[in-house]
Each structure stands twice: as C-alpha cells, then as structure tokens.
Amino acid sequence: MLNPFEKLQIPPKANYTIDTMLKRLPKIGGTTVRDREIRRLKEYYERIKKYHDFVVQFPRIDELHPFYLEATRIVTDIDKLRICLSVTKKASAISMKILKEYINQIRKSPENEANRIMRQAFGRVSSILRKSSECIDKVIDVAKELKKIQGIDPILPTIVVAGPPNVGKSTLVSKISTAKPEIASYPFTTKEVHVGHVILDDFRIQIIDTPGILDRPEIERNNIERKATNAIRNLNGIIIFMFDSSISSVLSVESQIELFREVKLLKKVIIPVINKIDEKDDEYYKKIVDFLSKEGSKWYEISAEKGIGLDKLKEELFSLIKSSGTNEVSRN
Ligand code: GDP
Q1: Residues near ligand 1 with C-beta < 6 Å?
Q2: Which domains are assigned to the chain?
Q3: What is the Cα–Cα distance from 330 to 203, expressed in whole angstroms?
Q4: Separation of CA 172 and ligand 1 centre (Å)
Q5: How do residues 308-317 score in pLDDT, each as one tens digit?
Q6: Per-residue pLDDT tens for 192-245?
Q7: What 3-state DSSP class applies to 274?
Q8: ipTM
C-alpha cells in the first residue's frame, strides 16, 4: 500500500488560478469573436476541473489507514477538512456547470453579445472561486503536507528505530537496509526520515527512523510531535530503542532511560540496543546495562557504524517480525 496521497494531482491555489486566467485572457484568440470567447471559457473550465478531479481523487477519510488518519490529524482538524472537501467539490461543480451554460449561450447568441456573456460568466465563476478560496487552499495545503510522507507503507511489517538525537538511528537504517534508504518526512517536521527496506526470504520489511519524534522526552515535544508519535504507534511492527554509550551522547544516561520508558508506553515490542560500543564510556555503559538488567530486558550491543553485532541483531529482528502473529508479513 502506497501513501494514499502519493499520486494525488494537486492544483494551484484558487487565487492563483483566477489571476492566471485574467492574465491569459488577452492571449487567447479565435477565428471569430464567438470562437474566442468560447475558448476563453473552455480554458477556465479545464482549470476548474482540476479542483473537481482533485477532490474526487482525494482519499476517503473513512477509509484511511490509522497511520495516515493520524498523520492527517497532525495537519488539520478532520471535521474542517470534510467541510472544505465538500465546499471545494460544490464550488468546482457549480462553476463547471455555469461555464458550460454560458458557452452554450454564446453559441446561441448573436456574435456581438459574446464578449459580454463571457465576462459575465468569468465574473460569476471567479466570485464563487474567491468565496471558497480559503477552503480550497486548505485542502491543497493538507494534501501537500501528506504527500511528504512518501514511501512509508503502513501495511508492511516495520522496524521503527527510536532513540536520542545522534545515537546512530539513520546509520543503523542504512546499515541494515538492502538498498539506499529513501528520504521522507513527517508532516510539519523539517527533519528527514530515512525509509529503508530489507528483503528477506521473499519478505519485504520496512525500516524507518524517527528524527524529531521519539528522540526527546515527552515534555519537550510539541503538539505536532506528540501526534506524530501517535501515528508511529499505528505502524505495524516493532521498535528498536538505541542507547548511546559514548561520551559524546547528546542525552545523559538518565534522560535516555526516561525516554526509553516513554517509548515503552507505546505498547509495542521494543528491543533495546546499546550503540557506539566501539567508543563506549565505561561509566555510561555500566549504568545502561544495570538498568536493562533490572528491567529484565534482553539487549543487543552494536556499533552501527563499524558493523559490530549487526548480524545477530538482524537475525533477532527478522525472526521476531516473522513470528509475531499480528502482522500480515507481505510477500514481495
Ligand atoms: P541519528 O541522529 O540518531 O540518526 O544519528 P546518525 O546516524 O546521524 O549518527 C550520528 C553520528 O554518530 C554520526 O556522526 C555517525 O557517524 C556516528 N555513529 C553512528 N553509529 C556509530 C557507532 O556505532 N560508533 C561511533 N563511534 N559512531 C557512530
């Protein structure tokens, strides 16, 4: 399943269309005055049809996968979106109907009436478009934001990589992916999300990192980031939580542990991994290990960069993904 917004053709903003049409008018000619005015209205019709096609193709909100529904909630109020979809559909349908009627009227009227009729039609349609522009533009903005999540397939079994900034999340994604990870982004975050894939015994597994989302304590996250965390919860899979055992760690061990506890609240299978084992600080390392031992968690020690411990980790991850009855592991 692709991002349902991925193929959506997004039209320009409403006022841009009106302004463009105004500029285009003198440039549209014809063999007769009547022919010219009909051409002008036809061009307007084609531009407005783009809004109609856009709302018709807009994914049905009730049918969105929970991951994409949550992502939509990040960007907009769902009820407002429904209203705006309906406003856009009505405005474009009425405008198209008006333009058709006026084109017919031009055909039937004397030649010297053609320009007046065209201007009347142009005015009526532009006024409808202008009145609905706030809503039309809102739907456009929502679609643009949601398109950015390209490449994240909520149905694929997924390994989500969480952990503090700079711990090595994207390094790990690239090290265990079969090909170079793609770049996506979550709505309203500027950080790049890496989306990699592993092909294993005929199965495709998706692996993504979580910059700016699961990398700071809850209290420091803004509303959008909290909602993005919710979206992640709806992905089908397990979470790797990476601890940084090096002296260059951005978060203290205590803060890393706090973050780990929060990620655990997502109620997903969570695999603790201690990274940067090649540069581990003995004191940090001991604190992390003590904590994980007390938790009774089984953990892995790796160096994502140097490739240490990755085979063992991969083996465990893949067998977990395959055996977890909840996911419909999809065939290639
Ligand atoms: P992210 O912010 O969690 O995605 O972290 P990155 O993958 O961008 O890595 C941050 C920095 O840590 C980069 O300079 C990496 O080269 C480095 N790094 C990642 N993994 C390791 C590791 O296992 N050992 C060491 N020494 N450095 C690492």
Answers
A1: 165-171, 209, 275-276, 278-279, 303-306
A2: 14-147 (1.20.120.1190), 158-323 (3.40.50.300)
A3: 6
A4: 8
A5: 999 999 999 8
A6: 889 999 887 778 899 999 887 787 777 777 777 777 777 788 888 899 999 999
A7: strand
A8: 0.99
